[in-house]
Amino acid sequence: MRAKQNTLSLGELPGCETCPARLVGVCAGVDRNGLNELEAVKIYRRYAPGERILLAGRKPGEVATVLTGMATMSRTQERGTRQIVSLIQPGDLIGQHWQSANAFDVEALTHVETCAIKADSFEALLEGVPGLQARLMTMVLADLDAARSWLGVLGRKTARQKLAGLMVVLAMRQNTAPLNSGGCRLDMILSREQLADLLSMTFETVSRQITGLVRDGLLVPRSRRVFDVPDLQALMLASGDDADGGPYQA
Q1: Strand ordering across the sheet containing 71-76
Q2: CB-based burial of residue 171 (10 Å sphere; 0-12 exposed, 13-18 middle, 19+ buried)?
Q3: Which of 5, 49, 190, 242 could be joined to 194 by an S-S link, Cβ 3.0–4.6 Å?
Q4: Are strands 62-68 and 52-54 parallel, antiparallel or unpaired?
Q5: What whole-number distance in Å separates Cα of residue 169 and Cα of residue 249?
Q6: Which of 108, 111, 75, 76 is nearest to 94 (CA)?
């Protein structure tokens, strides 16, 4: 599937100050003067679910910040199967301008909007805009820490803990209104097949674990994908990440 570039019209472009990713994107460390420079070169794009945003093996042409929606980062293994290695959410960067070729495919999971900058322009901005380079380094190091943590999830946790942990991360990243004290609503967004791919489990195991979490009252199904979480702290405990009593951090 080819990556489509659905550029938004000028009337649809939000200003940097009101951008939904302003406080979490790579531009978070940039002052007003720096934002003016970004405004001059940015391109907003839209992608429908299933569209490729980035193609593995292609030369990086842009660096993009996700404004809304969610995407998957994946790679195709030698035997032809696809492995999801990461979820990309608002504020995350797509494209590594320092590489000669993209290492992963990125595909829109929901409707996605991005703020893109041509790779050569981004290189120039890194040199000329104060705060941008430091913010990029902070994000790269945070991604590295997240990848290391995810290796621990996949390698040492039970199937129940893996699934509960992913649900906690999704719940904490989604801006949902509380249902009651300590509760929230969770849209898993991913299909059970995609959950199995991401968590290195089988479809049957994912289904059994969801059934178990529902049976134990940790999840209340509203649809196949949407659940109420009556007590987020209890789901955190089920993930195995809050056993020491310390604060949970996604």
Answers
A1: 52-54, 105-108, 71-76, 82-88
A2: buried
A3: 190
A4: unpaired
A5: 9
A6: 108
